[in-house]
Amino acid sequence: MKQCSGLWIVAPITRAVDDKTAKKLLGDQFKRQLKYDGTYSSVTFICSKTDDISITEAVDGLGLDEQLGDDWAEIDSIKDTIIQFTERIKSLKDQKAAISEMLAEVEDEEEVWEDLERKLDDGRTVYAPGPDGGKKRKRKAKPSGSRKNRLSIDTDSESEDDDSVMSGSDSASGSDKENGDPGKRNRVPLTGDEIDEKLSTIKAQKKALRQNRKEVDAKIGELRKEIKEMNAEKESIEAKIKSMCIKGRNSYSRAAIKQDFASGIKE
Question: Is 239 within a domain?
């Protein structure tokens, strides 16, 4: 040890201070050796894991509450804003889902009217779809009575179900079927202009819905960007607080280790 130009004692910073490492390492033999060799000044204590620190404990232990009060308040404010923006994003996602559902319904309606347009172009007589949009049929009631009567009823029902689209010859014979139903008897065949007008309205609705969904996506993107920026700002403030705590603990530890070392030598 006499020939060593320096003596390094390495310990985690928490043990170096809390466990009195500087004092405990100085056993009687070690102290006698230092005294004989005159190498007191060659001893260096190296504290590792200085970044392993509990911020709250360091703030309380070093009395930094008042000094860091504004920083803590700013962090709390950022956290509250992030929560608000996150809730806003959730609400916008629900709004987007509703718009997408409406858009799907409009697209289904467009398919129905485009089908009517194609059939009209083929020379068939077409009528406006019912309240269900022509996409679904009502479920028939469970048949009752004899098999012969059920067969007669089913045949008549099936002939009446598909009355939205009829050929020219079917229209004449179909009028007799509809005489008993005032609602059907009063239906007027669609013209090409009416179908074109309806399709133009549907396309305008689609465009508006897609634009609304695009605007919602843009708002969500802006909020996410702001949340990202706020998280970065929060992390920057937290890093500043951590740096101050580390520096404060290092200064305290340096003085404590020197005092422990001097106390150990005297003993």
Answer: no
Q: Between the CA of residue 261 and those of 12, 93, 196, what are the distances in Å? A: 16, 63, 95
Global confidence as pTM: 0.62
User: What pLDDT digit, counting tens, does each position of 175-221 carry?
Assistant: 334 444 445 556 799 999 999 999 999 999 999 999 999 999 999 99
For 46, phi and psi rounded to 5 degrees? -115, 120
Distance CA 116, CA 199 (A): 11
Contact 190, 116 (CB under 8 A): yes
Tell me, yes or no, whether 174 lies in a domain. Answer: yes
* Number of domains observed in the structure of the chain: 2
d(CA 227, CA 60): 30
Q: What would the two tokens of residue 235 be?
A: 């992390």
Q: Given the DSSP bridges, would you call strands 125-126 and 43-48 parallel, antiparallel or unpaired?
A: unpaired
155, 184: one domain: yes
241 located within any domain: no
Q: Do 27 and 118 belong to one domain?
A: no
Residue 17 falls in which region: left (phi positive, over 0), alpha (psi -120 to 50) or beta: alpha
**Strand 125-126 with 165-166, pairing:** antiparallel
C-alpha–C-alpha distance, residues 262 and 255, integer Å: 11
Cβ proximity of 143 and 150 under 8 Å: yes
